[in-house]
Every structure is written in structure tokens, then in C-alpha cells.
Amino acid sequence: MDLREKLIHESLKLFSLKGFLNTSIEDILTQAGASKGGLYNHFKSKDDLFWSVLAEARRIWRRRVLQGLEEEAGPLEKVKRLLENYRDRYLKDVENIPGGCVFVTLSVELDDQRPDFAREINRGFTGLRDLIRRLLDQARESGQLRPGVDTDSAADLVFTGMLGASVRYGTDKSAQALNRSLSPLLDWLDGLKVRDGSPGEP
Predict the structure, then answer these.
(1) Alpha-carbon distance 159 to 34, whole Å?
(2) How many domains, the chain?
(3) 3-state DSSP call for residue 33?
(4) In Å, how far are 61, 67, 99, 105, 111 from 14, measured between CA atoms?
(5) Could you give phi then psi for residue 195, rounded to 5 degrees?
(6) What residue numbers bound the domain in which 34 lies?
(7) Whether the predicted model's global pTM rises above the 0.70 cut
(8) CATH classification of the domain holding 41
(9) Distance between CA 70 and CA 107 in Å, rounded?
């Protein structure tokens, strides 16, 4: 890992724990074992560093949360795999995000203070919610969902459930609480399936 990568990596860890505004340049330098000159050789400012950290955070999210979705047989299974990956592979990633989901931390912190940053983070949230909606639409179109399931409302429920689980895990780092947050959502998704080839009741 070269200095630029180390600065990004350590900043991501700090942002997940303390947020962007509460992380000082000195915090980053100490954590990375770098000098100011070393940092400014790679980044013009703390804001410039933020964008690189955000890009790395997204790369990690995609690698951990989307892994294996293409292996699942149907779109509803893809949604469940996404939730399981989010729980088991992403939120528990203490090497990169010891404070929990960095996007949730930054979104809450920056909404009023740095709306330009917050808008970019919220764009990612919109993309996630749209992905869930597309998969649920595909499940409906393929006959996998029971009639009467509102995929728009269902996507909202899954998305807000993920964010709620992240907030809860960020406060106590309890794997048991995380399971309690997401297991009912996974069970609920199972309940949306058509059973034994019959459309069942809406």
C-alpha cells in the first residue's frame, strides 16, 4: 500500500468512526504516519481527499454487498443475498469501516454543513433503493411475487430496514442486534414468494 492508498484507507476508517467534520488533518496524518507534505503531495485539500475516500468507500461497498448476486437463481433471491451481504460482509468490515456504514455516518453529519457532499452520498442511496425496486419488479414480472405486492412500497421497506440496521449496529456493534434487525426483513421477503406454483393471496 503506497502513501496515497494509506491516506485514503486511514481516512475512510476515521470518517466511519468520527465523521468528516470531526476528523482533522492531524488525525489523518497521525493515523497514516504521514507528514503534511506527504498528504499535500497527493491531495490539494481535505475536500479533495474526501472525494477519493468516497470513491474507495463505494468500491468496497460494491465488492462486498453485490458479491454473488449473479449466482442467485431469481431476483428475489438477489435481494436477499444483497441483505445478507450487507449484514455479514459489509457492516462487519472492521478493517475498512470500524464505525459502521460510512455513508450513513456522513449523510447525517453533512446534510446541513456540507450539502454538496450530502447530495452525492444521497445519490448513492437513491441508486441502492432503485436497484432493490428493479429486482422486485423483475420478481413480479417473472411470477415470483404474490399478486398485490406493491414493489415501490416493498423497496422502501427493504431500503429503510437496511439503513435502520446500520444505525443500530453503528451504536452498539452487536452482531445479535444486527441479526435481530435484518432477520425479520429476510423472513418477510420469503413471505412475498408465490408458493407451490399457486398465486396465493395478496
Answers:
(1) 38
(2) 1
(3) coil
(4) 17, 25, 8, 11, 19
(5) -105, 135
(6) 3-191
(7) yes
(8) 1.10.357.10
(9) 29
DSSP element (H, E) containing 76: helix 75-85
Residue in the block written with cell 425479520: 184
Contacts 24+ apart (CB under 8 A), 76-80: 76/135, 76/136, 76/139, 76/144, 76/145, 76/189, 76/192, 76/193, 78/135, 79/132, 79/135, 79/136, 79/139, 79/158, 79/189, 80/186, 80/189, 80/190
d(CA 6, CA 82): 28
> Does some domain include residue 198?
no
pLDDT tens digits, 83-133? 999 999 999 999 999 999 999 999 999 999 999 999 999 999 999 999 999
Contact call for residues 178 and 101 (beta carbons, < 8 A): no
| Residue whose C-alpha is closest to residue 102's, from 155, 165, 58 | 58
